[in-house]
Write a structure and sequence with these properties.
alpha+beta; six-stranded mixed β-sheet; 5 helices; Translation machinery-associated protein 22; ribosomal protein
Amino acid sequence: MAEKPQPVKVLYCPVCSLPAEYCEFGPDFEKCKPWLIQNAPHLYPDLLKEAEKTAEQLEGLKISGDQNDSSAPTGSASKQEEVKRLPGGKIKKKEKPEVVIEKVVRNKRKSVTIVKGLDMFGIKLSDASKKLGKKFASGASVVKGPTEKEQIDVQGDILYEIVDFITETWPSVPQNAIYFIEEGRKVPGA
């Protein structure tokens, strides 16, 4: 009688959650390397040799200029926290707060002014749309844009008048943080 085949035991990396053989194709192979050297050296013999070389090179080095030679620099750890990693190893930068104003023409003569980014300055968009609607005597509403972020749509062409109103009404929004989108390019509003 034939023996029953036994299930194959697969070693999974706790860092990237892929099988150890596929760590090099994962989102961040550099973070997986220490675990692989310790738990699966037979899969990546080059890593073991590379680790030995760097260990030999680091033996002769000493950090100078610090009060405590044993303390590690903490500046790099705080920078790593600010950067957000996306799937595939891409890095997402922090967005700087800015207000983007764009005019969209619809039905030949009708136009809509779109205001994006007021929420980054701590302004409630519902209150802002009410104030914009009253000031310019037009309809204003909060809608979700194509990027799933909320924005304010104001009926009418108020592209240049809106900058003064925003800076007067909300002093937390500086004039140099307001941009227009004209002909597909981002232009400073100041």
